[in-house]
Amino acid sequence: MDTRNFTFMFYGFLAAWVILAAYVVALVRRENRLKRELENVKRMLEERARK
Amino acid sequence: MRQKLMIVLCGLAAALLARNLFVMLLRLPDEAAQGPIFRIIFFHVPAAWTAFLGFFAAMVASILCLVRKDLRYDAVAVAVTEVGLAFAAANLVTGMIWGRIIWGIWWTWDARLTSMLVCWLLYAGYLMLRHAVEEPTQRARIAAVMSIFAFVDVPIVFFSIKWWRTQHPQPVVWGGGSMDPAYWNMLFLNWAPLLALGIVLAMIRMRQEQQQREIDALRRWAHAL
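Structure tokens for the assembled complex are given below, as produced in the milestone run.
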């Protein structure tokens, strides 16, 4: 079997999953940012309500 | 309910993918002319189908957003576009890796490859455009028009191998290409987990978009107090 051919098949599989994994990481980061933003807004609302 | 559906889809996708990888790598014989690299098709083609389905859904959601003036459709459009773009990137990169072995080059400005790259750039432009407009209603309207316009390229990508002489192989689903039934089955069987993953990712992204809108509304309310 041509080793290079097999290696590139592996690269192809890997590339597809790395791209999708990178998108999942981006989604997780956005989720964390949203949680932080929600906390900030809640704090802001509490402060305004106290005033 | 939505959470349960996502868990079920993820579980099914993981199980099917594990089974497919086993069959793909250990059971299916190498393609006679191309060797092991041929197996890239099992990710390359389903990734394109998933991306196109996402872009189609984005176009439908964009039309509904313009007609009904409902921002929920805008959330659907952005979610499926983002997911479609990730799958389109996977399609382009796997195709380049296949081309390096079969054609001896990473890239050629052939009609199929170029139109697919243009498609990717159009949808990347759609996402960038959204960042440029602050006001949500105006952003939804402009983005919807852009999404409908970008979809014009999808049939061009699809039919490019019919309309022009290209280096890209003829389609295996319709037209001049042909494939062994075992490869055929694997192509569709591997589309299922990718599609399930795409649906889960789109659902997560849609929820995030709704959360963002709620946070923005709360912030406006807090400033108004």
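Chain A has a mean pLDDT of 92. The CA atoms of residues 43 and 49 of chain A lie 10 Å apart. Further analysis is deferred to the final report.
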